[in-house]
Amino acid sequence: MAKHSLAKPPDVEEATSINLVPMVDIMFLMLLFFMLGSDMGQRELEEVTLPLASSIKEDKGDAPKEGRTTINIYHDMKHGQVCADYDAKDIQRICRNDDHWKVGIRGHDYNVKDPAQRDKLRGLLKRDSDEGKATLTDRVSERLVMIRADGKAPYGAVQHVMNLCAECGIYKIETGAAQPPADNSKFK
Amino acid sequence: MAHGSAGEDNPVGLNVAPMVDIIFCLCIFFMCSFHFKQLEGKFEAWLPKDGPGNQPFPTDVVVIEEVRISMSLDASTQTVIRKIGSVSFPSNDELIAAVKGGLARHASNGQPNAPAIIDSMPNVPWKDVIGVLDLCKANGVTRIQMSEPFGPK
After folding, report:
1. Bigger pLDDT: A147 or A10?
2. How many domains does the structure of chain A reveal?
3. CATH class of B67-146
4. Which residue of B has its CA nearest to A151?
5. Option in B19, B42, B127 nearest A151 (CB)
6. B80 and B124 Cβ atoms separated by less than 8 Å
7. pTM reported for the whole predicted model
8. What is the ipTM, given to two decimal places?
9. Residue B125 contacts A where some CB pair is shorter than 8 Å
10. Contact check, Cβ <8 Å, B30/A35
11. Which chain A residues touch B24 with a CB distance below 8 Å?
12. Where are the domains of chain B?
């Protein structure tokens, strides 16, 4: 008995290792989900809180052969400054500083109150308009313009953009709006 | 030897650690940059083909054949005031009843194509303008126009 009690315990090497295969499987699935779900290709769409409307048509992003120009109107300040009058989540706070409201096309900002920038914007729209004309002598263009304006943007900014479109011969306008969350079934 | 595992049989092992690291990094990147896409729709509109301000103003007898919804922003309370004529309509139900009533009156007077005109001040939030537009469309008002402000731009 004494001999047994003094014996060394058996030297058993425990072969425990983490099985990585299920983790890798799950991570692959998560990676696929996030890759397919992210919309990184839509460079034209700025971060805009669209106004809600229930009677809108679904925007499938399809454009006529003459093309479509997307114009964003959104609140933006230089150098990451914060505007005390604007909060995207607070409906009551409305910023009415015209310099804070920008018109963005293809990643470039324009302030429509500034004559020089307005001329640049007009030139850009004129080029787009010319692309939608059958001949350059045509007065009107078949080019489509989608205006995506923040819900809190002043109506005057939208009017400016519409006026510029009309000056450039663009008459087909779409205004963007978002479906209220409780009524998403319409789009499915 | 017959009972040995596959790992013991195959001397070439696949080191999955770098792959897991990279997948972790990719996962974190996509998780951080991910946001659910908002369901977006559109209202279609047409601008006058003559360009802004080029419409001929009628010089003969002006017959009022429209329902004009005037919108302005009360700066002190930050609320939007919606009026038809001199009457203010704070609730949507009252507003749409007045619009439809006005259009019905014009239709009975032989002007079935009378439009509802949204005449908004430039400082009114866009969401309120879209709200009135949406209200009209949802209630079957098909002819809706937006007015252009007078004066220099």
Report:
1. A147
2. 1
3. alpha beta
4. B127
5. B127
6. yes
7. 0.72
8. 0.72
9. yes
10. yes
11. 27
12. 67-146
